[in-house]
């Protein structure tokens, strides 16, 4: 399974990527069992969460995950509950905040960029890797000399 453009960039420029920590599969499964509202999370996102636990990248981006810190406002449950109270449809699960709002669509399995004004889908991506390459990497690759 390929999640790797982001992880390859992190290997090359580790100072730009601050992960919460690797999770074992049992710990990840326990977290998923406790958070059934997440639906069937995409396999590549699950693999990413297991590898990193989520974390902060570049200067303004946060990828939410099982090990995100609620004290920093990175709690995936609270953030999604708040967005739903402001009109986001239940079918979306926000996993990234920063330059844009990124979610996965529980109905289609796609990754989406959501418009912050009304949560309509601005763009769709087939995979986690496509999402990263076509959004954050495009924005930051020249600034940080990512190959």
What does this structure look like?
With 147 residues, the protein is an alpha+beta fold. The protein has a single domain (4-140), classed as SMI1/KNR4-like, CATH 3.40.1580.10. The protein is built from 6 helices and 7 strands. It has helices at residues 4-12, 25-34, 43-52, 76-85, 128-134, 136-140; strands at residues 17-19, 55-57, 61-63, 92-97, 101-105, 111-114, 121-125. Strands 1-2-3-4-5-6-7 form a 7-stranded antiparallel β-sheet. The longest helix has 10 residues, at 25-34. The protein is globular and about 40 Å long. The mean pLDDT is 93.
> Residue-averaged pLDDT, rounded?
93
What fraction of the residues are assigned to beta strands by DSSP? Answer: 15-25%
Biggest sheet: strands, sense, closure? 7 strands, antiparallel
Instruction: List SSEs in N-to-C order.
Output: HEHHEEHEEEEHH
Total number of helical segments?
6
| CATH architecture field | 3-Layer(aba) Sandwich
Basic shape: globular
Query: Oligomer, anyone?
Result: single chain
The third-level CATH topology is: SMI1/KNR4-like
- Radius of gyration (Å): 14 Å
Number of domains: 1
Helix % is 25-40%
CATH superfamily: SMI1/KNR4-like
The strands making up the biggest β-sheet line up spatially as 1-2-3-4-5-6-7
Number of strands: 7
What is the CA–CA distance across the termini? 21 Å
| Strand-pairing-aware structural class | alpha+beta
Instruction: Please identify the top-level CATH class.
Output: Alpha Beta
Low-pLDDT parts are: none
